[in-house]
Structure formats: C-alpha cells, structure tokens
Amino acid sequence: MDALAAQALSLGYGDSAIIDNLDLQIPRGQISVLIGSNGCGKSTLLRSFARLLKPAQGSVLLNGRSIAQMSTKEVAKQMAVLPQGPTLPEGLTVLQLVRLGRYPYQTLFQQWSEEDERKVMQALRVTDLEEFKERPVDSLSGGQRQRAWIAMTLAQDTEVLLLDEPTTYLDMAHQVEILDLLFELNQREQRTIVMVLHDLNLACRYAHHMIAVHNKGVHSQGLPEEIVTKTMIREVFGMECEIGTDLLFGTPVCIPHGKGRVIASAPEKKSSRELLKAF
To answer: Taking the model in full, what pTM does it have?
Structure first.
C-alpha cells in the first residue's frame, strides 16, 4: 500500500482549476519530490495532501484511508507538515517550538509524559540543536531555524513528512545541510518524505521518485534519471537545456541555455553540448 494517494483529485481556488482529475501514488519509505514551473500546482497539491485544502472533487488517501474521514489528531499522528515560510510567536524558544510537535498526543486525561519528553529530546539530537534549545528561534540562522521546524515535525513522530520548499531563502551550504538531514532520516528510519523543490539539480540528487507537475496534472514521474530529459524540461519549464551527469553522484544535471559570460577566448568557445562531454 502506498503511503499517500490521490484518486480523481481536482483542486482549485474559486473558479480557477489548478489540478484536474489527478490519480497519483506516493511510494512508501522513499523521498518523492514535486517539480514544475511556478504556479503549476505543486504547493496546491501538497496542501491537499496535508488536508489544508479541500478537494473540489476526488479524495486523498493516507495509508489507504480517506483523510476527509479522519480526525485532525488521527491525521497528525501519521503525517507531519512543514509549510513554506512558517511563522511563530516572537520569543518562542527552540525547545518550546519542538514541544508543539507533541500536541496530537495530548488529551484532557493524558498530559505531558516521559514519552513526549523523550521524543522531543530525540528530535533535538537528530537535528543537532541540543545546544540551542533555550535560544529564541528568531535569533538563529536561516539553516538553524529550518532545522528547528524540522525537529518539531520529527517530534510529531509520523511516518510521513510533507515539506513545501524547505530550502527556500537558504544559501547553498544550508540547502545541502537541510537536504542531507532529510536524506539521513529517510535512510535511517525509512520515513516517507514528500517535498516541493525548485532546484532541479538538487531534486535529482536526493529524490528516489520525481513527479513533474504540468497542465493540471502529472507530466511524468519516476526515477530522476528516467524522466529528466531535454524534452521534459522543454515541455514542463518552457526552456531549452542540455542534460549532463553529476560528477559526484551520477544523477542528472540540467544546464540551461541562455546568455552568460564566456571565459574562453572566441576561437576556444565551446558549446554546451561540447562541454558536457567532459562529464
């Protein structure tokens, strides 16, 4: 059984249709990455998976059950969500934020427990934030703040993690730091991770399963090395490119056509195709 699935799913805002009659399965225990041009419906689709957007038609299944028929706490015990650009009250510490991840387990008759505390400490340790737990979240660097939010989702102790552009506004080093963390979580604990990413080359490096969203549905899906082609990039992003191979990981690398500074002198200029022979 797939961790998440969409059945005849249609989504939109008002009279504007964003996703139309979509069938999609998210494989369990893998990292799935949604890619596509701006406004194609990636984040809208993720919002529907998180039950933050009610479908116009169709349904979303979580572990084989319609999320529309599950209670909020029941969903929250199986799936954690990190939206794009989350906000929080000023002055909240890292520890206070991470403890919010245990909210689904609190009831009138069962308040904070040793298990809650253990999960919070484990989340801080995994994200390397133990020494920052008493620091206000808004005093941290961008990468540390994002790790704090991820720690909160980990404290929630769910099999499925949904993350909408988790590397937005981060520099290159912090992008890799966050994606390495998520990759390690997947490898160590077999968590099902679904992300929206804009950086196609990083998406190719970390994804087991890639889904290209286009024209209100799925253009193609599968292993990055299977679906990332010049044709797909042209049709999904409206851009010409060359496809090479990452020297370190063997995954696809997209090199877009366009203008730019050329270092070689005129007689030595090489085309993108010629340069790719070096990969």
So the answer is: 0.89
